[in-house]
Design brief:
Layout lengths: L1 H21 L6 H16 L10 H8 L6 H29 L2 H27 L3 H35 L11
Helix pairs in contact: 1-5, 2-4, 3-4, 4-6, 5-6
Length: about 180
């Protein structure tokens, strides 16, 4: 059953890759501003990109006056949308850069990862007081998506660098 799901995900990724590559993002002024802010942070923090995780959500929550619990969820989802876009683009780049066997393996990995994140963050949210559960779960999902996006983006960059590197260099451990 898992193999069918992985195959379906692989087919969906491969089938939509050309369309996604050609379709511009849906016009959303807030998302466009957030996307630009995140890109700027990542450029400025090229060696410490993890410092950009939470940038939009924290700023958004701080702008709210009064009870911030609902804002925590809304703001985390707002930033997660930016990281989700980056994750989708990085996933497509990985799919394009690998052979068909590796694509299937990557699709299975992504499907398993999505399930893991859903379960992890739902569990994390369930361990919090009711009033904070939704915000904490949304924050967990934001961190997981952001870190996965950064991981895939680093892998793509390292792969490109290794293809330019002379073959007499020893292999490097990926961290």
């Amino acid at each position: 059953m898992m193999m069918k799901s992985a195959s379906a995900l692989l087919f969906a990724l491969v089938a939509t890759a050309p369309a996604l590559a050609q379709t511009p993002p849906v016009p959303n002024p807030t998302l466009a501003v957030d996307r630009a802010q995140m890109a700027s942070c990542l450029r400025q923090s090229s060696t410490a990109t993890g410092a950009c995780v939470g940038l939009i959500a924290v700023t958004c929550v701080r702008a709210v006056t009064g009870d911030r619990r609902d804002a925590e969820t809304t703001c985390a989802r707002r930033e997660e949308a930016v990281w989700r876009e980056r994750l989708e683009l990085a996933s497509l780049a990985v799919m394009r850069a690998t052979d068909s066997g590796s694509r299937g393996q990557f699709a299975s990995l992504q499907l398993a990862w999505e399930g893991y994140v859903a379960q992890k963050c739902a569990f994390y949210g369930s361990t919090q007081p009711v009033a904070r559960a939704a915000g904490m779960q949304a924050g967990c999902e934001l961190r997981e998506v952001a870190n996965r996006s950064l991981e895939l983006e680093r892998a793509i960059t390292q792969r490109a660098a290794s293809q330019r590197r002379p073959s007499n260099n020893p292999p490097q451990i990926i961290r």
